[in-house]
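Reply to dn_fold:

You asked what the input looked like. This is it:
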Amino acid sequence: MRAYALQLKNKKPYEKNLEELLEIIATLPKDALIVAPEVCLTDYDYENLDEACKFGEYALEELVKVVDEQILALTLLLKENGKAVNKAVVLHKGKIVHAQNKAKLFKLGNEHHYLEAGDEEDIKIFEINGIKFGLLICFELRYKELWQRLEGADIILVPAQWGLPRKRHLEILSHALAVMNQCFVIVSNSSKEDMASSSAIYTPTGGKNINDYARVIESNLDFKELEFMRRYLKL
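and this is what came back:
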């Protein structure tokens, strides 16, 4: 499986971000696994939250139209029951095959003042074409109990907007998760000036592909590597 971790900057107006994402999707293979950064289409635009949520709805409709055999994971600001949420969606074959709202909000960024937290029970393994996936949104990567909820996943997706001062934390935690859970971890982080970049693809054997200067990081996920580690170290 070919995996692609995107590393993007938020722009204004929102439409520019959607245009860039659609352009990237169109250039990648038909069976690509693509992970985009957290809220990459609108940023955390709290001053225009209603507008950001409306654009999230529009963008989701547009993305569903173009994602067929590809798998795309990203998060969007949306409204549910009158409250704003940061929703991760995984798209495949023209539909949402998995969704979860960010359960662990980042209080240093005041997320809890604007967004409704999701349910940790929604953080669970889901399958696409026989492959077991899990997903953690940015700050959720810090919680070991959430790692345990995803034990057995073949691939863990991490859309993030992780700050530059904690860059090493993102890299260490992501690398450790891949080794600890014996899985592939795909991190897609923002490349804004105050963000860490550090988008990367980590392997269960401890390997990594990381490039702070690339818009797209690409790796081939060799499931024989995963099978070898799980036979070699039966945890």
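Helices lie at 14-27, 49-66, 111-114, 144-149, 167-180, 223-232.
Hope that clears it up.
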